[in-house]
Fold these 4 entries.
Entry 1:
Amino acid sequence: MAGEPAGRKVLERYARRLMDTCEVCGAAGAADARFCAQCGAPLGQSHPVIPDDLLTGVRGEHRFVTVLFADMTSSVARTRDLDAETAVGLVNPLLEAMVDVVVDYGGRIDRFLGDGVLAVFGAPTSHEDDPVRAIRAAVDLRDRAGALNLDVTVGVNTGRVYFGPVGSSSLHEELTVMGPTVNLAARLQGAAGAGEILIGESTRTRAMSRFLVEPRVLTIKGIDEPVTAHLVKQAILAPASVRGIAGLHTELAGRDSELATLVSIVSTRRCVLVVGEPGIGKSRLVSETRAVFPDHRWLSARCQDLTSSVPFAGIIDLFVAGWANSPCLPRTSPPGSPASVSVQTSSSSSFLRCRDCSVSPHLRATSTPR
Amino acid sequence: MQRLQIDAVVRWSQALANPTVVFVDDLHWADPLTIDVVARLSAIETISVIITSRPSPSLPLDTLIQLTSGLERVELEELDN
């Protein structure tokens, strides 16, 4: 192994370039000359300055991301008696599923780690709901592994990381994430049992009300205090709005005229579009309106970033509660014929299906999320 | 097929007992078929529809406005301190 740091070698190469020769005629130049004394060509123009990145050694950026570690459970034991090719045959379908799921949810595969994966949600492309995407990916991944008769352990954590190249810029470098957030995600994955998904507190607070979780206090190597992680049980089908602070109720202020407008519209069965920037109070205004009409039947649906390309995803909530016990109304049955309709949802699709005429589902999603 | 599905949804909604309010939150993230259904629901006289959305430019929002006549609009501005 060469003891010399690679960065210094590169520096020296640049320096030699600047001093030694003219790139046009090959004549020797002087270290401080800007033009070749022989042919007049500018010296060192292809490398006019030593790049800043070599001086600082850091070319990445700080990003707020959600990191996911997933690993196949007891893979060593399962592959111990297999020859290498057979072992790959066992592991690769799982890796393939991991890639599928992560990419489906808009994440990036950072790297494979043996029979596991490190995935990042939020760099280079970030989404408003990256923590939710990561957890849903984890849940899907667990299901996909189950279908392959395998188990995975998953750790998810959210926070600020370094995102950029590491290693030697001239010999070998990789684009990756680094920092305590990443380390904790890896530890959580290590602490998870077969088929378990453990998420950090910072992930949970950003995905609250979307998943049922169970707290678990862990002792993590390298961290003095016990760490509270959360075991993900399942996704909540029709999550309540997560706006505001749970348990805190305040008087609605300054929206009297807007509230009066909405109340009048509901009274006269008209339709209204409430437009405003995030956090301005749209959902609050609607919930205040709702309180005025306690006897009305309210069918609520929420469109989500994650499913904005899934057919009917935005309105499926409307019918989850309402349709489950209602008569079947597809084209083949006379309206009102007694039939039971079931609701099936998964991360990528949701549809209502009548058990009597299942060939004609009422709603069906066929694509996967962006 | 999708036409039939939307028709089924609309027929079901028409048959709902009154009074019904349909609330669609965060329309700016709606998929195209959801926009279709929301526009059709808005045309049903017996139900009231409340939609929230972030401001334009937003393809779902602009599409819905094009498809729906008689859609009133409430703009929420920042409150004065």
Entry 2:
Amino acid sequence: MEELIILTDQLDRLYDLITEPADTEKVKSAVQELLNSGEDPDDIIGTINEALDEVGTKYKSGEFFLSDLMMAGSSASEATGLLDLYIEESGRKKKGKVVIGTVEGDIHNIGKDINILMLKSEGFEVVDLGVDIPARDFVENVKKEKPDVLGISALLTSTMTKAEEVINALEEAGLREEVKIIIGGRPVNEKFAEEIDADGYAEDAVDGLKTIKSLTQGGN
Amino acid sequence: MDKRERVLKTLEMEEPDRVPITELEIEVPIMEAITGKEFSARTSLQMPVVSDPEKEKEKVAIKIETYREVGFDMFVVTLSAPEEWELIERSDGTIVGAWGRVFRLDKDRNQWVPYSTVFDSPDDFHDFEFPKPDDRGWTLGTRYAKKLIGEEMAIASFIRDPFAHAWEMFTPSIFVQWLYQDPEFIEKVIEELTEFNIEIIEKLADTGADLIVSGGDFCEEKGPLVPTKYFKQIIFPNLEKQVKAAHENGIRFVKHTDGNVNPLLDDLAEIVDGVHSLDPTAGVDIGEVKEKYGQDLALMGNVSVDNLANNTPEQIEEETKLCIKKGSPGGGHILSSSNSWAAGAKLENCLKMVKTGKKYGKYPIQ
């Protein structure tokens, strides 16, 4: 009983560290201590995801700032990385595979990168194509990686139309029906997503995670 | 009333004859469309990259021609590259800027855009050889603009805010890691960049700048980029030092930021003379800002740059009229877009904004 209470305290501490948010090394140490103490990795992952949810909610409400979201996302992703070996050995499946990139002519990456950290923390496999990605590279990677979801990011009004070019190129390659598509970035909205035949949209990283989870039914 | 007088009177929070109009930046393709002239050198909106002084002068000249053609009241000029700095293209096609940022070329716009950084650890910052304010060349653009313009338009010199500079220089993800792990280190970086800016501000004032515009964002769509405690502890004290340097040299100081600046306005109104861009897409209402801070704080903005890209000229006319109605009464308002003439802004919409400003911006405005 005493051991259970200690582990619960340690999980609470991990939760607090992510939601403070504290620096990444402290979070990683807390996860390592929990693993050394024999804590169930599923409970650790659950705690990390709950903490990240809270940070996302506080960011959306204005209580937290972008840097808090970035820091918590980074810590959670690094901490989840410590659990990769367990996930591999236990045969535990990833929740889904996401290929994500910023469209050609646009080099903005903050929202995309935070979204990647949150997806990894949630247990998704993510292939980051980077920024300034031409439509043909999106197509090639959908063909190669066979993702469940393709994320197309665009921050500028002038580049958001490139998302449509990517979707058209996937149509031409006969791959459109093979993958769910989410577009993300400040200028995109539901109307634009519908117009270009995307399956979902997100105005920020927190929405991105929710939409991708819903597109994959919360993971397989 | 001449153009320069119109701007200076506005910054004194008095009513001029008409609302002054300008833009902080115009992308080269738009300048080429307006002037009919080609500019071949590659540029950057983030840092001085034109290392050939003659090309730099050519850039300033085509920009002045654009501002004259459009009828702007204030010319905005960025720092020039120091003479010692050389643009060296690396094998992967990238270049390293004078401040350690790595840029790569956007071929469509012929612009160098930020891509990554040379800084992997705080030690890299100590080892990097930064340019010095005494290096020759920083003020070339301002000096040349003053020579060509004289008193015809007000001249604003554009520098980068130390916080935004560090955020961009290290890249946001590394900056945030270091801010949370070692805020004293980030504070030291910002202090060093502030010392640089103070010396540069003195030089710019000497060369004929009427005001400083400090670029680089404090905010994103939802609010400040970092918790407000860091603004109070680190960012604002260093901003105050730069504003003091400008005032001691007889010139004004305007802070630019995109995003939702509302949570910072109480402090900014105490520190700076004016704020640009009052981003309407991030929920900033120029009328509300005018009502609360309009007695002391000059406002620059805020026709949505997204709307300049997407809306019709008729819609832009209505938006501009509303912007003037809310922001201009009593003076203290410079009409501009909420960022710059870039990012897909349509030329016909940009020109409609100016035309509407000249037609409906005549004082008295109720």
Entry 3:
Amino acid sequence: MIVFYEAEKPGVPPLRVWRKSTYGDGHAYEMLRHGEWVPAKKPGDVLQSREVADDFVAVLRWAVLPNGNVVSLLAFAWDDKLHFWLHSQDTGVARYSLSEAADKTYNEALPPGAIQAPIDTPLNEHEVRRLLAKRTAEAASAAEVVAREQAARAEQQRGAKLARLRELSERTLESLTAAEYAERMKLKRELRGQL
Amino acid sequence: MGKQGRVPQDTFDYGEHTIPGTTVVMPRRDPAHEYAPKSRPFVFPQAEVEDIAIGLRLGLNIMLTGPTGCGKTALPRAVCAELGEPLIRFNCDGETRVSNLRGMNVPVARDGVLALAFSPGDLAQCMQNGWKVMLDEIDAALPSVRFVLQPVLEEDNRTLRIPETGETIVAAKGFTVFATGNTVGYRARTRAQYAGTSPLNSAFVDRFGMVIACDYPARAEEIKRVQVNVPDCPLDLVDGICRVAEDLRADAKFTADFSTRRCIQWARLMVEYKGDELRSAKLAVLRKLESATDAIVAKEVICRVFGYEKSAL
């Protein structure tokens, strides 16, 4: 089963969830409405207008960016063709392209650190929000821990370097070997104004 | 020289004066002669100053040899500045003619008639007035010029014949000849950086009662020399500059000279560029090196001494 999520669009407040299921004589699409799956449009249906097409928008993939925004790859039918649309919260429509190219572009468009959701993860709006929040919080928390550790390590290193620079500065220049002199000058540049 | 002919001798005294930083006591003229060099910061090396003091006392001609920028010209200049003694510096080169030293007839207007009158050269004036003369880069002068100098260099009877006037100038008391050269000429055959110099005739060299071989100072001494010239440069940077100089001079792959003068120039730029060792090094050191190998060696040494990555320069 592949589950699609409807895109967030201006004028379409609820996030509707679609699914493609295989039963009976072939593929069919269902829509989650009031907690129940109800029949939706089928691939063979002829779409006549933009309005109809807009009703057939689905999120194929989505990802959380490091800044917490969501990028989603939308699929929609319009003019009797299947279109793909890369949508981002910050910029609105980020990319638009047809067919398979869209998926490639989607991956390329994601900045480093983006958390991608599995394609077939069944989620409703609440779950999407919760997962996003959780993963964002986890990522933020992990990043915070890493940053704290890095800061502590840097502080420790800076302290050691300062101590070493003090030690070298207290000695006379004549007593420094070539390596010690080079170390002193390097530390002095690194810790300019801190001694 | 600016003025020609005999300069009126004011009354003056001689008093004992200790050359700064040394224990050498020499007679100082008071007030200083108007042609005495202006005093500049200088670190006097004890041994060389002792030698010059003895040379002056005995009335010897003094030759100073050494690599470029080691202070062989600055030393007699600084000593004369300390002593208030007049010193005329004459730079020798391939274009120097005997007439530049001895003098020549020049056209003058006399009672509305153009006539020739003898105008004494620098050497002739120094001899007449008992001044000290410095023949700089003597090994760059043509042999013919050096032969003319030989009677002037006779320490017990210094004379200069002036064919234009038929006169013979006998050197006045106090006249001393200093000469400087990168070596006594022999490096002209081996070192590219002394191109243009020629070996000195041994009869000419023999007329110098004293040859002082100057060389680049040890690091501690060089630090003092740089500091006295660039007092604003922090000591640790001066130390680094002198470490670079020391290492490059000892490096067999480095064929150029690294003079104390260059250290001073680097230190000056170091102050202007707020301690930027590499930027100042490019301007004061690296761009002066003609050989690519020398430049590579110098870059490596500069980066190593100042604790930079090799690729920093």
Entry 4:
Amino acid sequence: MTPVNKEELSALLDGELESKRAAVVRAAIAADPALHAEYEALVRLDAGLVGAAAEAGFMPDIVLAPAAPSAPHWMAGLAVVVVLLGVRLLPKLMDLALVGVLLQIVAAGIVLALIMSIARDPHAASSKLT
Amino acid sequence: MKDARSFDEVLRPLLRRSAGYARALLGERYLAEDAVQQAALRAWEQRRQYDAARPFKAWWFAILRNQCLDELRRRKRMPGMMPTDEVYLAQPADEGALDRLALATALARLPVAHREILTLRYYGDLDYEELAQLLVIPKGTVMSRLHLARKALAGQIATEEV
């Protein structure tokens, strides 16, 4: 049997030993009063640290992550390109001036929405933790 | 973890421990809260760099640890383990609370390497695998460092009790 390393007392305490090795270390602790006393001291220290850590913890009141924009900017850009192409091509295809005017209005609206979307602070719509 | 919802789901359960860890390093509750806030924003910005094959907790605590160390460097003061806000000092509830205060004082006086691994282990609740990832050391080294740190802490407490 491999002799018990003192560091394995810590690993046993932390639940980090494989089950077979943990059994060996437990048996060694039971058989050796000095090892037993050392392990008990580690257990008491561990309990104190666990308690101190639990007391220190608190739920912070923070913003976790910016909310995702409703649509990616590249999609808005693509929409603008499509509409602008439509403005140029559709009137020629259909020979209707009214269609061109309507499409220009739509294009202006989309460009305006895109500018407003980009200008908006990305953190403004963030979700707040409670 | 590409969208805000999945980011929230993985990070939210770690926040209480994260705040406690930051508080242990920075001393003040408001500093800890600010550090967690800044780390969360940094993690969000760097989320595409996260390797899903590795523990998220270790990745997150590496960011938080750096944030806390940045804050400590900025303030040019030594990290204090003893909490200084009124909640902690005004009303020790029982004998155990007094013991924990002595423990915190002893912890604050340990060398940085010992204090660091103990705060990550207890306040951050990181296991050996996560500690190994975060500190970039083998698990066996984590075991020996933790044991040395515990022995040093026990020695420090004994010294102060004399």
